[in-house]
Structure formats: C-alpha cells, structure tokens
Amino acid sequence: MKSLSVVVIGATSGIAQPVARAYASRGATLFLLARNAEALSTTASDLLARGASRVETMVADVQDSARHDEIVHAAKGTCGTIDVVLIAHGILRNQQEIDHDVDEMLRLFEVNATSVLSLAQRFGLAMESQGAGTIAVITSVAGERGRRSLYTYGASKAAVSHFLAGMRGRYKPLGINVLDIRPGPVDTPMLAGRPQPLIATADAVARDIVKAIDRGTWLLYTPWYWRFVMAIVRLIPERIMMRLKY
User: Fold this and answer.
1) CB–CB of 91/13 below 8 Å?
2) Confidence check: pLDDT of 195 > 90
3) 74-211-219-190 Cα dihedral, nearest 10 degrees
4) Which domain, by its residues, includes 30?
5) CB–CB of 127/176 below 8 Å?
6) Position 246 in a domain
7) Assigned domain for 28 exists
8) Does 197 score more than 90 pLDDT?
9) How far is CA 246 from the centre of its chain?
C-alpha cells in the first residue's frame, strides 16, 4: 500500500505534533512548516525516529503571503501527490488583552484567518488535478457565537469556517475533501495559564482528527460532546449572550 504524503502547516503547534506522529507511525512522507527552526528540527528528528519514510522542513512565517506559492511548490516537490494538508497554526488572545491595540487585533486576524484562507486556497488549486486528497483546517468552537471575552479570536475562526464551507462545495466534486476541525479547549502551550472547563488532551484530539481524515468527514467537533454543547449555545438568545461574561 502506498504510504501517505502529508503537509503540516504550523507543525510545531500542540495539536499538529501528535497528528504528525500518528502519520509518522504509518510510514508517511511529511512536509513540515513552522517559524521556529530549532523546534522544527527537533520535531523532524522525532518523526523520523517514529517511522516516517521522509521528512522535509521549511521555516517561514505564515504572515508573509508573498511566500505562500513557494510553500505550496516546496510541499509538492516533497510529496508529489499530496494526500493530506493540515493547517494548524494560530494564535490566541483574550479580548481584554488586545482591546486597546487595534494593530494587534488585525495581526491576530491575519494569522488566524487571512493566512489560512490564502494557504488553503493555494493548496486546493495545487491539488485539484489529483482527484483525491484532504485539506483539513483547525478552527474552533469559539467561532460559532460572538463572546465578549474572545470576539476577535472567534471572528477569525468563524471566517475560516465559512470559507471552508464554500471550498467544500467547490472541491468535493473534484474528489477533494475539506475538513473543518472544531476543537474545544485543548491542553497545549497556547492555553498555558488559562484555566478552561472541559479541557481535552492534544493526543485525544489528534486521534479524532486522524480518524476524521480517514473517514472523509467534513466537520469534526472534538471531543465529541462539543457538538451538543454548541447546539445549545447556538440556541441562546442574543439578548442573553450580551450579558454573559465568558
């Protein structure tokens, strides 16, 4: 059986690493992109030790959109046919941290939304002749309702989810699945020092992601109970949401 070729953007992030490890254990070819060269090198060595057939890395900042075509070209050069693209980069800021810094608000949106849209579309265009493959993007349950404590972050994730819904309609007839991954709080460095209810481990979330990709799922809530939690949250009247401080 042909080994998979997997591209991971934001490869040193807390969720991306266990996903990459899962594919390494299957003997996959991996193309990894991140900003931190040292962390990326350590990750690559670990994946080779875990069974990856080949690991290539690229250091780049996703905010530099001028390099996005270069990123896709390098990934294609490593993988040939790309079976899976996982876009996993992002930053988190509570609203009170950026309320008086509009430039930082815009930077958050650029990292979490604009760069994701750009990379997802470019990979879609590069993969459309394949007739197969998955573009998987980590969004968040925070994108489903505006919250006073997190509305810039939530808006960035909502924008990506809407974009992915449109992409899905465009690429599904071509055999390419577009997966929207909506985790709740996950125990990763991003949430260090931010106590959260119902927090999940990164390994558990990664297992759910790999299963969803294998099955051709188009929307994943992880852990599973967030599907039901968010169904309730979506029913809360706006006049009540405005009063909630969470």
Assistant:
1) no
2) no
3) -70
4) 5-241
5) yes
6) no
7) yes
8) no
9) 24
Which residues have CB under 8 Å from 203's CB, separation 6+? 18
Residue 50 maps to a domain: yes
**What is d(CA 241, CA 49) in angstroms, rounded to the nearest whole number?**
48
Please give the pLDDT value at position 64: 96
17 domain residue, yes or no: yes
CATH of the domain at 18: 3.40.50.720
- Give the count of domains, the chain: 1
- What pLDDT digit, counting tens, does each position of 159-190 carry? 999 999 999 999 999 999 999 999 998 888 76
Q: Residue 76: is it exposed, middle or buried by C-beta count within 10 angstroms (0-12/13-18/19+)? A: middle
Mean pLDDT of 133-151: 92
**The token pair that represents 16 in the structure block:** 């991306």
pLDDT higher than 70, residue 246: no
Tokens of 106: 């815009």
**pLDDT of 86 above 80:** yes
User: What residue ranges in the chain does DSSP mark as E strands?
Assistant: 5-9, 29-34, 54-59, 84-87, 134-138, 177-183, 186-187, 200-201, 219-222
Whether the pTM exceeds 0.90: the reply is: yes
